[in-house]
Amino acid sequence: MGIRTGAQFLAKLDAMRPHLVIDGEVVSENLTRHPAFRQLALTYAKLFDMQHDPAHRDALTYESPTTGDLVNASFLVPRTPQDLARRRAATATWSEYSNGFLGRTADYMNAALTALSTAKTFFAQGDPVFGERIEAYYEFARENDLLATHTLIPPQVNRSVSGSEQLGGQLTARIVEERADGIVISGARMLATVAPIADELLVFPSTVLRGTPEDAPYSFAVAVANDAPGLRYLCRTGLHNGGNTHDEPLAARFDEIDAVVVFDEVFIPNERIFMLGRPELCNAWYTDTGAGALMTHQVVTRTVAKSEFYLGLASEIAGAIGIDGFAHIQEDLAELIRNVEIGKALVVAAEAQAAPSVDGVLLPHWETLNAARNWYPKISQRFPEIIRKFCASGLMALPGEADLEVATEDIAKYLQGKSLTGSERIRLFKLAYDASITGFSGRQALYEYFFFRRSRAHGRSHGEQLRPRADVPASARIPGPGGLRNHRGNAFAQDAGLPAHPAPDIPRARGGTAETQIDVSGVTMMGYHGQSTLPSERSV
Ligand SMILES: Cc1cc2nc3c(=O)[nH]c(=O)nc-3n(C[C@H](O)[C@H](O)[C@H](O)COP(=O)(O)OP(=O)(O)OC[C@H]3O[C@@H](n4cnc5c(N)ncnc54)[C@H](O)[C@@H]3O)c2cc1C
């Protein structure tokens, strides 16, 4: 079949029967007609249609080696520098459509599948059948142009113990039954972005496992159809408030719903099991297969588009209200320019230093990509801050589109800019509003900060206690889970109108003590060049 059209994507979505919980409702059919999912589905449909558009087709597709049909270029196995450039061009094409605000376009997970499908040497260390299965699954995804999401980390119940220790191991998704024809998984994983509109869920190794027999139930990599029986998604409330693209220019199109993933005895047939019972191979899943490198190549390419968007927006605002001559404004514009150019340079440098894997796949230089992915989460937090600084109260002087007809003269006179009419200025500032102070923009900042990083908590060794870092002053430390729950937790709960005590019939996770200290200095970044002392730093 090869590349799908938007209409084909939407038709399949409507035919699926997932279990989605959102805003007090269970939605299981006709997703494209549901207000919570419709806009996002239409946006993704546009991405599929772009593959057929003569203006983008060459950048977004290539000929399938097995069928000759056009398939998405993110499935291209890179063997030459031109292949890497082609992959980048495809990602850039989709990223420029959304200005980098869509983090889960299909090329993100396709990158992982592409690398995994070629990693024969890696899979040979375990059972080569896993390598054969994931290659077959990659071809299935490529030829059917599937949209996959993934879910990695354990629930955030108690980060002072590892996921496999929460509630005696009964919370995190785990194998509860092994059958001749497959496995059964129960438990939960924390998050899956775009889950409601995806075709498939990839449940890949989440956390650094200890390699002990107790970790065996958590050692797996599988794929499951999004409407498999027993799979439930608890979706967050949408950040699009129902406005049109004039009033909510970003949220109305690009709100990728995130969801908690619950597995209630979900059966996974053998052909969809790509790793089982090998914690050390699960721990090396991203680094040793090249999946981390190709995924990061996609991520860094996407984030260049986002940096360019903020630079463009800030420049427009500065010109529109005549602040572009002020020194501190120019300084911020220079910061944005620097970040665009650094991002571009890092992608190209990673490609220029690419080297073949043991399986002959040309992988972009990991150290360069790793620098990029450790750099961007921090610098991107400045983008909305700069927009707020440039706009100031202009972000509040914002009548809606409907008001353009009602207050035409006032808007034309009082809301004009130095170089824009009143209605033009409102459109520009609506964009700034959605990119800097709305819930949508807050979620974007959170996404860039966290989606590609791991806390040490996910992979801490069994029994290891959290220790306060030496460089964190005692005043900056807060009581750990035990302390909060026993000492101040009830007071907070009452203030928030929450029950002061856990409901009696809900099993509670144990672990951590009143003495436990949490390091508030931030998240551990991924290690450099495999030199990390903690294996958790090597996970993606
Ligand atoms: C918008 C968004 C979308 C996402 N989408 C996906 C997705 O599609 N699929 C997916 O698998 N994941 C997704 N993630 C999850 C992402 O992988 C995690 O946010 C990331 O791994 C951090 O884990 P956490 O959120 O559980 O934070 P936690 O680990 O719970 O950390 C919470 C805070 O505690 C601190 N902390 C925790 N443990 C320690 C420790 N041991 N030492 C010091 N500090 C510590 C952290 O620094 C952090 O400040 C998404 C996240 C976001 C925000």
Automatic annotation (TrEMBL):
InterPro entries: Acyl-CoA_Oxase/DH_mid-dom_sf, AcylCo_DH-like_C, AcylCoA_DH/oxidase_NM_dom_sf, HpaB/PvcC/4-BUDH, HpaB/PvcC/4-BUDH_C, HpaB/PvcC/4-BUDH_N, HpaB_Deino-type. It comes from the Bacteria. Gene3D superfamilies: 4-hydroxybutyryl-coa dehydratase, domain 1, Butyryl-CoA Dehydrogenase, subunit A, domain 2, Butyryl-CoA Dehydrogenase, subunit A, domain 3. SUPFAM superfamilies: Acyl-CoA dehydrogenase C-terminal domain-like, Acyl-CoA dehydrogenase NM domain-like. Residues 481-513 are annotated as: Disordered. It holds the Pfam family HpaB_N. One of its GO terms (molecular function) is 4-hydroxyphenylacetate 3-monooxygenase activity. The keyword Flavoprotein applies. Its EC number is 1.14.14.9. Residues 5-275 form the HpaB/PvcC/4-BUDH N-terminal domain. Keywords: FAD, Flavoprotein, Oxidoreductase. Residues 282-452 form the HpaB/PvcC/4-BUDH C-terminal domain. This is 4-hydroxyphenylacetate 3-monooxygenase. It comes from Paeniglutamicibacter sulfureus. The lineage of its organism: Bacteria, Bacillati, Actinomycetota, Actinomycetes, Micrococcales.
